[in-house]
Amino acid sequence: MKNIKLELLSLLKKPRRFHRYKNPILPYVVQTKVAVDDNTAENLKKGHAFEEFIVRLFDQDLFTLLEWRSDKEINGVSPFMSRFPDLEFYYKSDTQELHFAIECKWQQNFYDEGIELSDYQLTNYRQFQIVTGIPTFIIWGIGNIASRPNTVYVIPLNDFTVGKMHEFSLTPFQRHVIDKNFFLDCQKKTLK
Prior knowledge:
Layout: H1 2-13, H2 38-55, E1 63-68, E2 87-92, E3 97-107, E4 114-116, H3 119-132, E5 136-142, E6 151-156, E7 164-166, E8 174-175, E9 184-185, E10 190-191
Parallel strand pairs: 3-5
Antiparallel strand pairs: 1-2, 2-3, 4-7, 5-6, 6-8, 9-10
């Protein structure tokens, strides 16, 4: 894990190494944020509650939580690593093992009949997956409250081909039992 972080940080100092990638690498993406207001603070609270809900659904005997990033910022300055997915897990059984990452999103309702990642977010998560080789999933909760959503979708990042996914295209990614522990298929790199 330390080597991955060092490699990512060293990439900041050597931008000429990125010419082989189609998309711009993380350091070239500029994020603009507004000052934290009451609404933003409430959204951060809800986001953290959803992350807690997701973390509880991983069996601690099989899954080790390696990283849990938080969104922190002051005067427009935030840690470079906060651009990466929220959670990193390491799965190990008697026969398989896999390091993977998860970005958690929760919202009360579908917006414009779907869900959406900004270009900034999608680019960052894709570059994280490319540079680290760590499979990444987007887990999206909809409805009720963040700590107990009505519906949960588990979307492999590779299936998030555009920034917006319509509600109907999410059906294959829906978890049918919301509070059941996650199952990971290391061969297929699927999380259910």
